[in-house]
Predict the 3D structure of the following.
Amino acid sequence: MAGQILPHDVHGTGPARVIVLHNWFGDRSSFDAYREHADGDAHTHAFLDCRGYGEAIDADGAYTMEEVAEDALAVADHLGWDDFSVLGHSMGGKAAQWMMLRAPERIRSIIGVAPVPAAGFPLDDAAWELFTGATDEPGHRRAIIDNTTGGRHPDHWLDAMVQRSLSRSSKAAFRAYLDSWSRTDFHEQVKGNPTPVLLVAGAHDPALGAATMEATWLQWYPNARLEVFDGAGHYAPEETPAELAAAVERFLAN
């Protein structure tokens, strides 16, 4: 599978290089608040749009995590980055693991923000109906975002999140990525992997919170550690951007 150089932008000039992969409901603009707090003298971040999202909304593809990984590696090649860390939010965290398997000599570390485990995320029949229905029903998207942030946010925040999701993702990509991040399982391939991993979980995330991290990532990666953000649900880049930037800075400094 050959990767494509997808739309991206680079923030900072620091020596610690980081490829950033967004979540299912966002594009690279979902990290706008985070980048305001990122230390550009210490880090260089490359923020990507996955196929079917953001400026790559019209890009055709299979819309799989493997494809996201290959595209991200193509961007790294374009930037001349031999090695780097990967920051992946939610489905981006699953794609980051494919990057690690594809190019282990290049991935210095992984930062997973509410990251989907390598085993995927099983959904029961009711949840599957809700998530698949989100392709066409904005109300389904709103319900998922509200639930995964603990029902704490006002209407205008939820509405903005839904509107960004609708306007900056194609339905074809949105639906196909769901199958790839939720239903594919390659956890046997990552068991015992020595790559350093920082896991960030929101205290108000009932799906990909601390309990899921402890049952999956922390079982498989011997050099993984977990930080729990009291002020966040599933969307730490938007909910607690300064805290996330500080955690990333501490981790990359080690």
Remarks:
- The beta strands are 8-11, 16-21, 43-48, 84-89, 107-113, 197-202, 224-229.
- Residues 65-79 form the longest helix (15 residues).
- Residues 8-253 form a domain with the Rossmann fold fold (CATH 3.40.50.1820).
